[in-house]
Amino acid sequence: MSDSTPATPRPTTTVKVALLGAGNVGAEVARILLDHSTEMAARVGAPIELAGIAVRDLAARRTVELPEELFTTDAEALIDAADVVIELTGGIEPARSRILRALHAGKPVISGNKALIARHGRQLQDAADDAGVPLSYEAAVAGAIPIVRPMADSLAGDRVDRVLGIMNGTTNYILDQMDTTGAQFDDALAEAQRLGYAEADPTADVEGHDAAAKAAILASLAFHSTFTIDDVYCRGITGVTAEDVAAAAEAGYVIKLLAVCERCAGGVNLRVTPTMIPREHPLAGVHGAYNAVFVEAANAGSLMFYGAGAGGAPTASAVLGDFVSAARRLVLGAPAQGAEPHAQLPAVPMDDVRTSFSITLTVQDRLGVLARIAQVFADHGVSIYTMQQKDDPHGTAQRSEIRLVTHRGTNKDLTATVEALRELPFVEDVTGVIRVEHAD
Amino acid sequence: MSDSTPATPRPTTTVKVALLGAGNVGAEVARILLDHSTEMAARVGAPIELAGIAVRDLAARRTVELPEELFTTDAEALIDAADVVIELTGGIEPARSRILRALHAGKPVISGNKALIARHGRQLQDAADDAGVPLSYEAAVAGAIPIVRPMADSLAGDRVDRVLGIMNGTTNYILDQMDTTGAQFDDALAEAQRLGYAEADPTADVEGHDAAAKAAILASLAFHSTFTIDDVYCRGITGVTAEDVAAAAEAGYVIKLLAVCERCAGGVNLRVTPTMIPREHPLAGVHGAYNAVFVEAANAGSLMFYGAGAGGAPTASAVLGDFVSAARRLVLGAPAQGAEPHAQLPAVPMDDVRTSFSITLTVQDRLGVLARIAQVFADHGVSIYTMQQKDDPHGTAQRSEIRLVTHRGTNKDLTATVEALRELPFVEDVTGVIRVEHAD
């Protein structure tokens, strides 16, 4: 269902969006809605209008580069005039009252407010259910990682037994630094603060409160039950020493601040604690400020979802995914369907595409060989990324092996290069012609 | 919205399910629908009835342990009598005609048929859109990994730039074996066949055709366009040698059969080829028969989805996730909402939960110390998983350090154990008391 399938008529009334909050994420959401309004309209099936941005203090608008006339301090009037409400203010009140006001008026709400959802999620969901409109909060758990929807929908036919999550980027950055550099907690925290990964007051992160809120939300979805942040046993990482990290490493473990939600006798236990996990566990490979959620389900087995857990643009992506779904449902009167080909990009054949190659040459070891080979690449417009020569791979001093990785070139040019290399008199063999994906 | 929120009335008519196909996945779907019908009913909001299983040949029913009376060869009659159709037969015809028959009659369809969706997905989706019913095929791409729904919904407000996928478990197993054991392709293939990871005729896997079908489906969703398997440039792994793998390893790379779908000048290029990726890339850590999809999006940044790409139970999980969504929509006349607390499991406090701990003791090195310590654990009903003694950590021969990891015990017992250890006269310090998650 999209603009390119005219068989299905649909309303073209503009969808008016009320944005509450203009922090990191709010400003990014506003920017994307303004800069990419045509794309958004194609995805939703109707024009999108950012009706306004509610802030507590109009002085706040000066910190973000958005049109001044969009800002208002009258959130209630903005909500009443909108079709969809995006709440990105944080805290319990007035966020809760405003979300309830929108839901009671039958307006879909998207929220990224983990503290609120972890505390009053049930009340808000009931209000949404009563009004028959969606309440979505993908952005409230693990930032950009799509986990709320997979948990609620994709795993709806399975039984989740355990959820293990690295759900706070600040603490993962600190522990990862301690693991890779041997730093003490205080030094790693200072470094995280210097780089903007940790706030001046890092309490909510390092004491585990942020991860605990996310764990309560995720466990509610995973176990079809209602948990709040008060159900989560929570210990932070301030007591973890460089010696603990080193001892864990020696034993083949890495220490992560892990949220664990697991079925046990009598129900579900929710905890956030520094936890040793084996180095070979997929979660052990989650470095820096990245987040990941590892799910163990009866039939699906082990699943992992990995991505950026915070940041303006990543979190805005999650907010806008929820927004497009909600708006599409509003416009079409039905949930979104599968592959909607509104972009209709053509498939580009291999010969017109630029990729990198690794190539191994066995050559007779004569003076000037490298120069001649490099010239062949240059003649075909392919530039060399790395080149490595190894003497005597086959036990004869007259031969050597040269391994090259190219920059991106067209398939046609690379094929022609390989053919030309094969014709060089001193080239005995060209092997290992394999594509490479690397940052270049 | 569930049976436990009586405020919302809903029809309680039974949802009749037609299952087409009784292979690995079909048999598993049938088993779960039969064995877990009460749970399924709670999730859907109405009773579920497996109306029948259509097979080509009734002799096939003897290979699976399901009630004989469920089987039929009249797929059309079964479809006509059902409310929801699950197609797990594979191949183009008669699967396509049967899916169209169901969609034209306004019945939601769930399919795991990648060959069909990769070839005729657009036609089937148009039929579903015209009828206003969902066509779902999470099981057709990367087995249990929820990727179709995140791609279609969660990333709907973002711009996907590139998708890199390990989408075939057989070839990943073979390449992983070659990487870790130095085996040649033929030997790794034989091992995969012996373990049931590869079929007797491995062509579709090792030549990349299976991955190519999945790439076409995924790219259609990622780029809001229509691609078929014919748009995918496809090279298999039969030419990859042990020498190639060793050379890649030496250069810091690992070879994977990668599906790459990327925006480029003029559109999107789709390719499946053996590809070298840096060892530090998250996809490099995908071992054995596991699958993973790595997505690069403008705002979300890098995301990865990891899990079992094949197998009866994992794929059945994906089928049933789609089924619950479709059936819930049928019953409620609306898409599924968020946290439906139909299970209402209680939160279990920490003291009643069994977890493992790592504990480090600094002790005066006397005869019988280990026995006394072990006795303390035994007295508190906590068993020891591993114990390691290191002499002289602080440069004095009179002290040693003992590191223990326990089996699971209650928090209460572990706390009491630590307290008792602290009171032992020869114990100087108890440090590094950290929870451990390991298989036990």
UniProtKB/TrEMBL annotation, chains A, B:
The active site is at 214 (proton donor). NADPH binds at residue 114. It comes from the Bacteria. Its cofactor is a metal cation. It catalyses: L-homoserine + NADP(+) = L-aspartate 4-semialdehyde + NADPH + H(+); L-homoserine + NAD(+) = L-aspartate 4-semialdehyde + NADH + H(+). One of its GO terms (biological process) is threonine biosynthetic process. Pfam families: ACT (PF01842), Homoserine_dh (PF00742), NAD_binding_3 (PF03447). Residues 358-435 form the ACT domain. Pathway: Amino-acid biosynthesis; L-methionine biosynthesis via de novo pathway; L-homoserine from L-aspartate: step 3/3; Amino-acid biosynthesis; L-threonine biosynthesis; L-threonine from L-aspartate: step 3/5. Its EC number is 1.1.1.3. It is an enzyme of class 1 (oxidoreductase). L-homoserine binds at residue 199. Keywords: Amino-acid biosynthesis, Methionine biosynthesis, NADP, Oxidoreductase, Sodium, Threonine biosynthesis. Catalyzes the conversion of L-aspartate-beta-semialdehyde (L-Asa) to L-homoserine (L-Hse), the third step in the biosynthesis of threonine and methionine from aspartate. NCBIfam families: PRK06349.1 (NF004976). This is Homoserine dehydrogenase. The gene is thrA.
